[in-house]
Structures are given as C-alpha cells and as structure tokens.
Amino acid sequence: xxxxxxxxxxxxxxxxxxxxxxxxxxxxxxxxxxxxxxxxxxxxxxxxxxxxxxxxxxxxxxxxxxxxxxxxxxxxxxxxxxxxxxxxxxxxxxxxxxxxxxxxxxxxxxxxxxxxxxxxxxxxxxxxxxxxxxxxxxxxxxxxxxxxxxxxxxxxxxxxxxxxxxxxxxxxxxxxxxxxxxxxxxxxxxxxxxxxxxxxxxxxxxxxxxxxxxxxxxxxxxxxxxxxxxxxxxxxxxxxxxxxxxxxxxxxxxxxxxxxxxxxxxxxxxxxxxxxxxxxxxxxxxxxxxxxxxxxxxxxxxxxxxx
Length: 307
Fold this sequence. Notes:
The chain has helices spanning 2-16, 30-34, 36-40, 59-70, 75-78, 83-86, 104-110, 129-132, 144-157, 167-176, 184-194, 205-210, 212-223, 229-238, 241-245, 282-295; strands at residues 20-23, 26-29, 49-53, 93-94, 102-103, 116-119, 136-141, 200-204. By secondary structure, the chain is α/β, with parallel strands linked by helices.
C-alpha cells in the first residue's frame, strides 16, 4: 500500500510539471504557447511600467523596490496583496481555478492605470504595443553563473516548471538556451541593445547588491519620483533580502501551495553574488567560461560574477 502511495505521489509530481514548446524559436511553457496570440496582441497603455528580467535575476526584489517607491514607502500599502497580484506576470498562464490557476493577462487587463507588470520575455517577444506607447521599462540582468544556479534551484522547488534533472544536465540546457524563456545570452544582449532606442533603465543585480541606495535612486529618478532621504532609507531597509525573505507578500510561502515546495529550496534562497562557486566544479567552470566568452564576444556588456 505504501508503495502505491509513493508511486501516486511521483505520478502527481510529473503530471503537474509543464512541457516546453516553442514560439519564434524561444522555449515557453505549454500553457503560454496556448494563449500566445493574446499575449502578443496585449494593449499597453502609455503610463504602464514594465519590469523585465531573465528568470531569477532579481525580479521580485525589483518589483518590491518599485512598489515601495510608488507607495512612498508605505509598508502597509505594499502588503495589500502578493507580488504577482500587485504586478501581473504578463505572459504567465496556468489554467484552472484559484489558488493555482493564474492569468497575468486577465489581471493586467482588469487593472486600473497606472499599471506595473513583469515579464521574462526576450526583447523581440515583448508585445509591440509597449514600444508603440513608448512605455518605461526597467530591465535587471544578473551574471550568468549565479543566474543559472538560482534558476536550477527554482526548477527543483517549482513543480509548474520542467524537471531540471541534475545540475550538470541543467547547465548543458542553460548553455544551449534549451530552458524556459530561452538563451540567457541572447536575453541580456537583446535588452542591452534595445536600451539605446527605447525608454529602458538597464540595471545589474550585482550593482544592486553592492550599493542598493545608488541603484534605488536610479530607479526613483527613472520613475520621476523624488522622495525624502528618510523614505529612501525605509525602502532600502524593507527591500533588503533579510526583510523580504520574511515577508509573506513577497516570499511566495502563502501562494501556489502544492506547486512551490519551499522544503526543497526556499523561493528566496540566498540572494548573494558568487554562490555559483559552491556548485560549479573546476571542469564545469572552465567549460562554461569558454562557451561564455564565445557567446559574449560581440557585446560591450560586462558582468561581475563576484564582488
């Protein structure tokens, strides 16, 4: 009997995990592919703000900073709802009833202006209306090695994503761009190029860790907000990793229960720069660096993998 139960649990585990399909050569989750036309035809408004990142590059952190700036540092207002309800995840779609069903499009469409949304889409997949309306976009990039490690652990704990396999297997997929939202290399380079033509504030996770005050001031300026020093200090404190890790409105402990298993790996895991050193073998690091140098040879974009 116990064995049957175990097999059933394993089966359920596999059943939830999404398969990948491709749109324009970019791997996306099957449910997203099923509504892609609606995503592509999404109607942005001129005062929309979009937070764009490759997955696990500091998205939730940036969302919390932006929300606190918008709410003038009012912590209670920032606790009005979970992150993914305050800032709809534009392309994410999971059919089914709440609490695990989710449509970022529906949430965004029903939201009064000014709206803030998030996306992990590469720049060429962003709905054209965002460019037509000249919307402001904040892009955050994180060094590839830490991004990979964080993404691997996220796949392990989030059953709505494909099974990552071993670290070695996931690294191969990551390097080949055969992961959800495609190639990290193309993603960071594509947005880097786009910033010269559009209203894009391009930030680095490592800079945000090193000097949160300076980077938060950049975000405030970009958003056209001028807040008192006291409010700024409050935002710095309340968006620190330690505080956010304990904030149920940002750490996903009360949402998607059954889909996200925090006992495997917490959603807010470490939030540091250089954690990749605990996971990469010497041989893997050498192989990764060689591949990285080839793929990043044609860009002025420079990352720091340690501070």
